Amino acid sequence: MKKLLSIMLVLTMALTLLAGCGGSGSSSAPAASSGPASGSASAPAGAEGDYAGQTLKVAAIETAYGTAIWEEIVKAFEAKTGATVELTMDKNLEDVIDPQMKAGNFYDVVHLAAGREKALPETLLKENAIEEVTDVLGMTVLGEAVTVGEKIIPGFTGNLTTNPYGDDRVFLMPMFYGPCGLFYNKANFTEGGGELELPTTWDEFFALADKTDIPLFTYPVAGYLDAFTYAMMAEVGGQEFFNKALQYDEKVWSSPEMDQMFDVLGKLAENTNPATPSYANGDNFQKNQQMILDNEALFMPNGNWVIGEMADAPRADGFEWGFMALPAMEEGGDRYSYTFFEQCWIPAGAENKDLAKVFMSYLYSDEAAQIFATAGSTPAVQPITGMTDKLSDDNKVYYSVYDNGAKAAIGTFATTAPVEGVNIKQDVCFTMDSVVNGTKTVDDWKAAVQKSCAALRAAL
Hints:
It is a single chain. By secondary structure, the chain is of the alpha/beta class. Helices cover 38% and strands 11% of the residues. The protein has 17 helices and eight strands. The protein has helices spanning 2-19, 68-81, 93-102, 120-126, 148-151, 202-207, 225-246, 250-253, 256-270, 276-279, 285-293, 306-309, 353-362, 366-374, 393-399, 424-437, 442-458; strands spanning 55-61, 84-90, 109-111, 173-185, 300-302, 321-324, 336-345, 407-409. Helix 2 (68-81) packs antiparallel against helix 14 (366-374), helix 9 (256-270) packs across helix 16 and helix 16 (424-437) packs antiparallel against helix 17.
């Protein structure tokens, strides 16, 4: 419980700062919506068996969590409601559902996160093609006596991911979450019997290059640098700076603090295993993850799902997973771990929106949370109060990163009207491949990001 309270306090503080940073020319994210307004009535989620004869079309991305979790969820929901659920799962879900939706064949509920390379949720948000689900927060959880908003950990709504238009409307509901930081092999460091000291600052991090022949860094695919750079933005400038960066603020992106971030990224590129870019794709990314297991790289940004993905992979003698927040910019400075969370949403063209919202409410039930956390080889943890206390000791190591002094960064780049030829994630993250390969410089990288930010700022 102590760990849970620590996480809640950190997330609440992060959101409070996030909400209070509306400077001139920028809009700020609202305070967290943790339940219905005072005096408002909670909408009932429906009694068991009320939806017999109705069919719900659900699409969910197949990830390291496996397919069993969603299959079990579907069975349990059908038993409670009498509804029939048609479940579609695929590792490349965008390729399956996007053509269907363009043809007018909409799914009712989709579990597919923003921040992926194909950016389907982001595209639909720009086209106003995702249904508002603010009212789900006030719905009673199916089978329980509390509302959805009362169960969600503060901070997981009201941010620029769930509320992408910068107001109090929710469009993407928070799903499985996990701290993102740097994974490493404990055996290389004194905590695991090795000779190296775990770095607490970036200076200490880069000083390791003189103490070991192992390259300092790798990444599965460059897209994984989104959580990494989000945390670094907060480190160089704090929460207000971070929120303004997500809204493409001109002064922020041309500031000395942002120069400091790109300086670190450039040094990381110089100390990245040179084979990384050649494997940094959907087919070979696990070869980069294998570098940590084989002591071919010291650190790797990732989320806790990597443990399950690499469970059967060979590893160096004595290997043990370690995890930490990003090193601080200076001694005594703040260290951040970005909180990644997936999202669930309803297409605006869905035919069965009422039942879709009932299904959403069920996803936050104790029953569903237990299924998610135990049905697959890797626990899928919902942002629900009390969930971390139910995890194994191994998983608590990663979910307790905020207990060890790290602060949480929450949010994603603000949604804008479509701007042809501009992809901010491509510029911020995937340029790393070119810098590692030597085909672009850090100055090229920074200039490209600033140009894209200017275009997106005008489209807010």
